[in-house]
Every structure is written in structure tokens, then in C-alpha cells.
């Protein structure tokens, strides 16, 4: 029987996930379909019950449901539990609903597709301390990154993540600016440079070292002001599209058992966004 999957959110029309997953089903010859479903916050519980009744094999969860869906699920994997946020639901063989969070791990896959796995001891500067930064920090720690500093405008938020990780250091943006040349891997997680955003880079790159690694989680535009400035200093650039594609690929693997082709998908979406 044909399987079906979905992404739920409010709003949902802008999501690229249906296009991505349906293209993978076609490539991999999987008899399945993936649909966007607009679910308002007040209808979330009913939506989950309906999906269960109608036999969805799994679905993605986006804003504003990532936290609020948790009471309606039967179990959570370790990272989703730690995050208190779910972006992927899997209906298990015995009909239970299990929540995962593939956002942070998607970022790590994207980063390591570019730089390999041999740099896990190098000093990382994570810029920003919102939900996205928190997921990335936990995911980096889980695969063995040893040296993580989190810089944020509101330093208390960075400190909270460091406390939760029981590792790392929290600093202000100003401290980061002054010591930029002591880091090798830079991860920009604030909305700076988003096409819809209204503010520029929240810090100066004057002391950005040469030949470092610079990643951004923003993918519209693909080249953010941060990546442009880093590239001028000879950095290896990782844009935010890989994180989006790999979070989807990890979800796909949870549902269907194999890892789909991410390179072709990144090329396809790059062309669209380019
Ligand atoms: P997300 O869940 O997508 O990570 P978020 O939780 O709103 O989004 O986090 C946004 C991040 O961008 C935060 O680190 C925020 O800094 P504060 O914690 O100090 O608010 C950062 N940010 C947003 N606007 C900023 C600005 N104008 N200058 C500097 N940092 C900014």
C-alpha cells in the first residue's frame, strides 16, 4: 500500500520539504507521497489523532509545533528529549508515535560533508544561543566536538546552554570579536543576513582568521554577509542549505531505512535559490 508522510506547521505553504521528499521517493522508487498540512495551534492534538487514524507513516513538524507536539507522542529519542523539541515523528511497527529531532544532527552532517570528521578537537565558535544554536551545540557534543564556545548578545542564554551541556564556555559578542582569531570553526545561527531579516551581522569580522571554516544556518540567501566576509578571508564555506537537506535525509532514513542522495538534492535546490 502507498505510504504517506507530511509536514505540519503554521504557516506551511513556504516549506520546501514536500518537494524534497517527493523527489526522493521518485528517485528511490518508493511508493509514497508527502504533503504539506496547515495545522493551527488549537488543532494540533486533533491533527495528531487524525494522522494516526489515517495511517501516516510519519511526518515532520515545524514552527510553531515543535515543542507543543510532545505531550501527544508516545516516546522520544534521547536528543529530542534533551531538546524538548521534535521535528520528526515516526510511527513505529507497533503503532506508537516516536519523536526525533534531526535539526542539529542535520547541521553536523552538512558541516562534516564539507570538512570531514577529523576536526572535532578544533575550537568552535557558535554565534547565537536560540533554539537552533542549542540543537547544534548538543549535536556537536554528541558526535565528540570537544571545544565549543557560545557567543551571544544575551550571554545568560549562552551560559544556560553551556550549563546544560556541562561543557564549553559562554561569552559576549564583544569578547568573541576580540578573540576571533583563536577559533577555527565558526557557526552563525542568528537570523543575520536572512532575506526577510532587518539587521546585519551582529559582530565585526575584523579579526577573523585566514583559512578557517565558516558555516551559516541561513539558506535564503545562500551567501549571507557572514559567509561573504569569511570567504574573503579564505574560509571554507558551508551554507545553510545542507542543514535543511540533511535534517530531511535523516528523517527519511528513520522512516524508510536508507539515506537518500543529498548531493543531488543540494544541487537542485541551490539552482532554485541561486
Ligand atoms: P532560533 O530558534 O531560530 O535559533 P531564536 O531563538 O529567536 O531563533 O534565536 C535568535 C538568536 O539570534 C539569538 O541568539 C539572538 O540573540 P539574543 O539571545 O540576545 O536575543 C540572536 N539575535 C537576534 N537578533 C539579533 C540582533 N539584532 N543582534 C544580535 N543577535 C541577535
UniProtKB/TrEMBL annotation:
Cofactor: pyridoxal 5'-phosphate
Positions of the catalytic residues: 66 (proton acceptor)
Chain ranges of the SDH C-terminal domain: 240-269
CDD domains with a match to the protein in the record: NAD_bind_Shikimate_DH
Keyword Oxidoreductase found: yes
Coiled coil: none
Pathway: Metabolic intermediate biosynthesis; chorismate biosynthesis; chorismate from D-erythrose 4-phosphate and phosphoenolpyruvate: step 4/7
Positions of shikimate binding: 15-17, 62, 87, 103, 219, 247
GO molecular function annotation: shikimate 3-dehydrogenase (NADP+) activity
Binding site for NADP(+): 78, 128-132, 152-157, 217, 240
Catalytic reaction equation(s): shikimate + NADP(+) = 3-dehydroshikimate + NADPH + H(+)
SUPFAM superfamilies: Aminoacid dehydrogenase-like, N-terminal domain, NAD(P)-binding Rossmann-fold domains
Keyword NADP applies: yes
Domain Quinate/shikimate 5-dehydrogenase/glutamyl-tRNA reductase: 120-191
Domain Shikimate dehydrogenase substrate binding N-terminal, first and last residues per copy: 7-89
Taxonomic superkingdom: Bacteria
UniProt record similarity statement: Belongs to the shikimate dehydrogenase family.
Subunit structure: Homodimer.
Record function comment: Involved in the biosynthesis of the chorismate, which leads to the biosynthesis of aromatic amino acids. Catalyzes the reversible NADPH linked reduction of 3-dehydroshikimate (DHSA) to yield shikimate (SA).
Protein name as it appears in the record: Shikimate dehydrogenase (NADP(+))
